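In the lab's daily routine, each protein ends up as an entry in a very long ledger. A line of letters takes care of the sequence, but it says nothing directly about the fold. The three-dimensional part falls to structure tokens, numbers that each stand for a local backbone shape. The outcome of that step, for a single protein, is printed below.
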Amino acid sequence: MEKTKQVTPVPRHVAVIMDGNNRWAKKRLMPGVAGHKAGVDAVRAVIKTCAEAGVEVLTLFAFSSENWQRPADEVGALMELFLMALRREVRKLSANGIRLRIIGDRSRFAPELQAAMREAEALTANGKSMLLQVAANYGGQWDITQAAQRLAREVQAGHLAAEEITPELIQGCLSTGDQPLPDLCIRTGGEHRISNFLLWQLAYAELYFSDLYWPDFKHEAMQAALLDFASRQRRFGKTGEQVEAEAPPSC
């Protein structure tokens, strides 16, 4: 594989909506699960590219809270693939210093899969090179709701006044609350929406949409997304002139 070229600036946190597996398979007259299996290679490529580039956090949207509505056989195949991928890939992650974290509501998953999640997280707990967050049975609305419930319990217990609730407190109670906010959100498959993914966290993320189906989004495509990010001016409500005036002088 081609080595990742260094680009500046590098996003600290990249979030990815991995879309297009089913359409990739359909185009090839294959069952949908074949697309999901092919997508595992893209996951490996994107993890490697981001780690080499110096990305600190990579969050992959693997299974949304709405995906349970898909046909039962597809959901079952996805659960089997998830379990198999956890068991096969976790030692590679650990060997490369990548820490794994699963975010989302795990209660609906089978006990065997929940146990595999815990084991994978424990095995990679000492990873320092990059944090890989896999969003499974995750939804942005669920995330904000559970944060609100957590703060409501603090108010109910008398540990917090309602007037003391700030955006920072809410953000800290989200499932990604101890990590930097995403700088870049990528969606593959040609769709231009965020589909209930990291709703709070993506408020100021740069959005990048690719027409490639997820199984085809490999090293060069990820590198192109990083280069595109590096070319953008992030203003956070300021004018372009203000941002330029505040930028440190280039060498």
Q: What stands out?
A: Strands lie at 13-17, 57-64, 98-103, 130-138, 184-187, 206-209. The helical segments are 21-27, 32-53, 72-95, 111-123, 140-156, 167-173, 219-230, 240-246. The longest strand covers residues 130-138. The chain has a mean pLDDT of 93.
